[in-house]
Amino acid sequence: MGHFKSIIGQSPALDSLIRNARMVAATDVTVLLKGETGTGKEVFANAIQKESRRADKVFITLNCAALPESLIESELFGHKKGSFTGATANTQGLFQAADGGTLFLDEINSLPVSIQAKLLRFLESGECLAVGDIKPYNVDVRIIAATNSDLNKQVETGEFRRDLYYRLDVVPLELPPLAQRTEDIEHLIKHFMAMMAATYLIDAPTFSKQALKVLKDYAWPGNIRELRNLCERLSILLSGRIIEPENLPREFMTHSSSTPKAPSFTLPESGIQLDSLEADLIYQALGRTKGNRSKSARLLGLSRDTLLYRMQKHGFTLN
Q: What is the mean pLDDT of residues 48-58?
């Protein structure tokens, strides 16, 4: 369980995700990690592998967006000598190299449709076929996949096979964007600043309360990776100093909620019944998430405990 404890943060959204990931790690089920770029999908894949029965076996990562279509099939499944120009010897692929262990397929949303059928065959039967071969081979490999885009939409447009999606989506784990776990920002900053201080042998800077407020108000389109990069930049440029809002990059000020903006909700002239509106929004959130309270809480910008309290206040059934 120690490997999940190394994941930084204490927000309700993260706690719920870690609980589910721990249960998944104990099994051999296929896992699909969903989340925006920079939310930490590879960190979770590593933690799941280290808590699994395959922890002492090989763990191999392939970014499906990093190779051209002409190479990815051979990279995954291997090839026979003479199967294409330059194939001067029989070469094993990542499935053979990962036999007994775990294969993490990052950005699986970029996997070409022509290769998706071969991956589906493996998931259904354990069989793989090398390029240029006619005899399949069997391997024992656990698949952890990750996507930074909505595979449902790609299924609808024909970019991703529906049957493969269902095979991968046995246990989906959705990583929340950093903007939905602002409680974790200070914990992450402390971790990254200590890391940079040790890496560069410098005194870590500290953030003023005003600068921390700007960070918590920011939208974080690059998520945790963007925060890490910011900490690294400021550690080098402002070593040992106190960071004020004016020391932050310009985009943090222009995209901060401290910037005046139009209200997202306009109070009607006739007024509203706030209790009724709150109950109605909770009802809509629960309906949209099919009763999932953690997801409903995120939609409403609440902690799970606060949502349960307000559900109880409005007479919702809690069992």
A: 96
